[in-house]
Structure formats: C-alpha cells, structure tokens
Amino acid sequence: MCRWLAYTGNPIHLEAVLFRAKHSLIDQSLHSRLGHTTTNGDGFGIGWYGHPTDIPFRYRCIQPAWSDRNLREAARAIRAPLFVAHVRAATGTPSQETNCHPFRYGRWLFAHNGLVRDYPAVRRDLMLAIAPELFPLIEGSTDSEVMFYLALTFGLERAPVAALERMVGFIEETGRKHGVGEPLNMTVCATDGEQIVAVRYSSEGQSRSLFHSTSFRHLRDLYPDDPRILAAGQNAFLVLSEPLVDLPGWWEAIPESTAVVARGGEIEQYPFTPELA
C-alpha cells in the first residue's frame, strides 16, 4: 500500500532517513519488506517544519520517489526538527499531486497507510459529515484525505486521539450500514509541529506494520559511537512503517489498536478504541 515515517528531535537533514539509511524510505519505495505491496511508486510527499508554530512546508510529486532528482537535492538541503515523508501505492484513486500525502491544514500534517474498503460505496456519506467550512478545502479524491478532514471535523486540533477515535468509529459505522464487514485498515500520523500522534488500527485486527524508535538515551548507551544517534539527540523519536536499520534494541513494534503520542521527548501509548461520533 504505502510507507511513511515521521521524525522529531534535533534538526537533521532529510536525506539521513530518506536516502542514506540501509533500508531508507526510498529503498522501501522499491523493496518494501513488510508492506502489502512491494513497490510504492504512485507518488510521494514530504512535509517539514522550520519552527513548531509555523505552517509546515510541503513538496509532493506524482513521480516515483526513487526517480525524482529534485527530491534528492531537497533532502540534501533541508534540515528540520520535525518532518513527515510518505511514498504512495494507490488503492483505486488516480496518481495525481493532490492525492499525494501528507495532507495539510493550517499547522497540521496527516499521512495514512491502508484503505477504507468499498470506498466508492461509502464516499458520499463520509464526505457529507465533513464540516461545511472544511469541505471546500478538499483537493483530491482519496479516502485518506477524507479521513483527515473527518478527524478535523471531530476535533483533531483540540484532542487528537479522541478525534481519530471518532473518525474511525464513524467510518466503521458508515461502512457497516453499507454491508462492509471490515471497513477500515490504517496506520496514520498527525502532527501540528509540536507533537506526533500515530495510530495502528484495523477493523479486522490485522493492521499494516508500524514501529517506533526506542529511547534515544538508551540507544546512545547501546551505540555510543553511532553519529546518527548523537546527531538526533536524546529526545529524538521516529515512527515508521518499516525499520530503517537492522540493529538490536533500536525499534519497538506498535501493538494493534494503539495510539502513540510523542511530545518534548516523552513517548506515551494509549489503547485506541473507536467511538461513535
């Protein structure tokens, strides 16, 4: 389907995780080891913050990530304390720039891996639930963008985890009204530049893979001479579809039906339970 990652910590160059890691996101776009599809070549996007309170920058393109020379140049130049990157494998909607992640609203960025099943059957009902003031901002045709605007409608800016639970509950309720037995499969990331919220959930309990880094303080003790750990700092955090390197103690799998919130060096996990809107 798709692969994505999000980073927060000391400012680092994007190329460190997009290109230079052994199993970088660009490598995953060609050779995903844990994804539903091996190749993710239907476009890509990056979003990054110069400062947590700024509106994030964004670059999206419909080319495969591995063949975009401008992405390589941008990743070498851009140094940021928080960023999101996504490589896309389309699930029934066109390869166009407005369908590439991350999606943006104000300070918020949103990325998704997975699908709303039988999306054409439920699309109208889902879109009609989006707040009227948000509806004109929808640019593309993906289920992922609709998920984002539903979460905003349900209060993403005030209480992110609760809003995502309401979004999922509404999609599942709508899907089942249309006879869809397992309406949703997702890993998602939402960030406002100050926190990263990531969720792993699916209606069938077999979600796409999702991992996060263990404590960088602990990693520094395990690998005191690794320049990547020293550069990121002790409060750094990565959440991602697949591990970037194969080193013991570096990654922790996020359990099913779990939300992870990273903010200011603190990492908290919560049970994720969909709620009816």
Explain briefly what this protein structure is.
With 277 residues, the protein is α+β, with helices and mostly antiparallel strands.
Q: Name the shape in a single word.
A: globular
Mean pLDDT comes to 91
Cross-sheet strand order for the largest sheet: 3-2-4-1-10-9-11
In oligomeric terms, what are we looking at?
single chain
- Secondary-structure-based class equals alpha+beta
Detail the poorly predicted runs: none
The first-to-last residue Cα distance is 28 Å
Reading off the top of the CATH hierarchy, the class of the domain at 3-114 and 192-269 is best stated as Alpha Beta
Q: What percentage of amino acids are in beta strands?
A: 25-35%
Q: Mind telling me the CATH superfamily name of the domain at 3-114 and 192-269?
A: Aminohydrolase, N-terminal nucleophile (Ntn) domain
Topology pattern, helix = H, strand = E: EHHEEHEEEHHHEEEHHEEEE
Number of separate helices: 8
Residues in helix, %: 25-40%
In CATH, the architecture of the domain at 3-114 and 192-269 is 4-Layer Sandwich
- Largest sheet at a glance? 7 strands, antiparallel
DSSP E strands, number:
13
Q: What is the gyration radius calculated from CA atoms?
A: 18 Å
Q: What is the CATH topology descriptor of the domain at 3-114 and 192-269?
A: Glutamine Phosphoribosylpyrophosphate, subunit 1, domain 1
